[in-house]
Amino acid sequence: MNEHQKKQPDQVKIDENSKNEQLEKYREDSDGQYLTTDQGVRVSHTDDSLKAGDRGPTLMEDFHFREKMTHFDHEPIPERVVHARGSGAHGYFQVYESQADVTMARFLQDPAVKTPVFVRFSQVVGSKGSADTVRDVRGFATKFYTEEGNYDLVGNNIPIFFIQDAIKFPDLVHSIKPEPHHEMPQASAAHDNFWDFISLMPESAHMILWLLSDRGIARSYRMMDGFGVNTYRFINKEGKAHFVKFHWKSLLGVHSLVWDEAQKLGGKDADFLRRDLWEAIEMGDYPEYEFGVQLIPEEDEFKFDFDVLDPTKIWPEEDVPVKIIGKMVLNRNPDNFFAETEQVAFHPGNVVPGIDFSNDPLLQGRLFSYLDTQIIRLGGPNFTEIPINQPLAPVHNNQREAYHRMTINKGRVNYFPNSLGGGHPKPATREEGGYVHHMEKVEGRKIRNRSESFRDFFSQATMFWNSQSDAEKKHLIKAFHFELGKVESKEVRERMIDLLNKVDGDLATLAAEGIGVAAPATKGGTGVTKSSPAVSMAGTVKDTIKSRKIAVLVAEGYNHKQLSQVMEALEGKGARCKIISKNMGMIKSSDGNEVVAVKNYETSASVMFDAIFVPGGAKSIETLKMQGDAIGFINEAYRHCKPIGATGEGLDLLMESDIFKKGSLSDSPPEELMNEKGVVTVRNASSLSSFNEEFIKAIAAHRHWDRPEKDKVPA
């Protein structure tokens, strides 16, 4: 086999471990090794620079000092303009059955193939140093290392966007970033510039409701859905095209924080979301997402009451069902955050045969912007040679120079056509795996305008509002009170209420109540009564406690039997229990057993957990009653509508808290098993099987919003 007969892309085979094996040659392990310079010279001393005498000047000939300091001075690279703060994970994707009827993309054909992936989750607005739990859109970008080349699905956890045309993207980002005259606020939309912009952009109304809903403060990257946002095309071998929207659906369901939690977590653990992802993978609780598509044949493009190319509109799942076609599992953390998560480069223009673009004007702009951004941020056009960005498919072309070139190309030929290289590398036909763009007929006069079909700004915003549960509506109104309450300009606040009145009169009236402006004189709205249950978080998965974090509050003298039986039941269903006490270390039970408290009150809080459990033990409970932090754990968890369980004397700690005194529960818990609004108790703990069953059910529900007096409980 000569050099011009090397394997073609259609002969490349991949599996789940292919990317890991490719990266292996770039990994370096310093265990047991000597310190060297970047040139491989062993270093004898690295604590003092070379000087002329003990107290003399540093000498320029100290090559080790100069190399070490120069590297340090140049370590920062420009952070992403948006999506600067993120977390990544490796994994694989498997299709359930061949999708050959709609696309010729090979990674969507064979259920036996595990296509390697790398996923980066992110916040949008804040800098790299901002907190994880701010209210924001979350990025959900997936790089598939397929046998035909890299395919990037670059999306968010919200299926639509603020604007219809990419030319407005710089204005949007400028408005939502810290205000330029004083660089405040960080990672927040709650300021005048942003809401001034939004109040003048009615096309953003739909997206604003999504952002201020609970989806804007995700509980975990593992508990949120992902969306491709834009409209793409699937193309099959016969050349038939379908418009397609992409969905990732979390198998843990979609769950959120409450705003008070999000704010407190920003101080208690600013890395809450990235820590949650990392620890889950390390413990084997691998995040899983099913991959779904919505398909519309090209000939049906104009059969709906929305424009299929409008990025501010969803395709309601009730009108265009989501077909689940595969699953992604994230099962490995990066070895080096900078080398992988920070340097990974996504681009919606990275497609494979069988996937093509639509005329979605936001997508069309992204096809330029992403590549342009990577070139400046990663130091030139050879960023594709950074290991995390390298495809598994072979790369053969005539690009041989520019910054940071890694490949050492052989041969004299770097142009096409050529005869000196035997005509290679040569273009491939469609049958040979060459990418061929869909032959869409395009014609029209050059014009700066948008389609009339894009000008319905409010009907889907109304549908979204109609679709929310009562609890979700209350949270959304509170979000408006916070966001618009930070706006100093009364004119901007009034303009936003007028805009919301075009969506729904009740929405506008409720939002106005908290921000010092008058409610609309006449209630407005679109008259739309349609709802879409799929856009409400209330109906998502609530049948598992897998990977939920349970805080167990104990002190010396706890009841070990109760603790061990409940923990065994919870962990048997996949939950993760952590012992919390005033002091870390060994805690002795009433019968001489011991457990390890891994967190104390200073390093933890109820906001870090999904549920609270208090086992009995007279001595333990008497001690906890005297600890305000323990009482605070209970009160705060109750106010945040989290499940709380108590057995035996553990009920007495609940009685000492405010959840019975000020909450919406009965005056006191009965002696027998009780499950009231997610508070599960039993005094007689001789048999815990029924308690465990009810407590697991309460945790699976995630939140218990039906606590009408919860705001009376201090947190």
Summary tags:
EC 1.11.1.6, metal ion binding, Catalase HpII,  Chain A, domain 1, Rossmann fold, 715 residues, 19 strands, alpha+beta, single chain, oxidoreductase, globular, 18 helices, 26% helix, Hemocyanin, N-terminal domain
Secondary structure topology:
Elements: H1 18-24, H2 63-73, E1 86-95, E2 115-123, E3 138-146, E4 149-156, H3 169-176, H4 192-199, H5 205-212, E5 226-227, E6 232-235, E7 241-250, H6 259-268, H7 272-282, E8 288-297, E9 323-332, H8 337-342, E10 355-357, H9 361-377, H10 459-467, H11 470-485, H12 490-503, H13 505-513, E11 549-553, H14 560-572, E12 576-581, E13 585-588, E14 594-597, E15 599-600, E16 611-614, H15 618-625, H16 628-639, E17 644-647, H17 650-656, E18 674-676, E19 679-682, H18 689-700
Parallel strand pairs: 11-12, 11-16, 12-15, 16-17, 17-19
Antiparallel strand pairs: 1-2, 1-9, 2-3, 3-4, 5-7, 6-7, 6-10, 7-8, 8-9, 13-14, 18-19
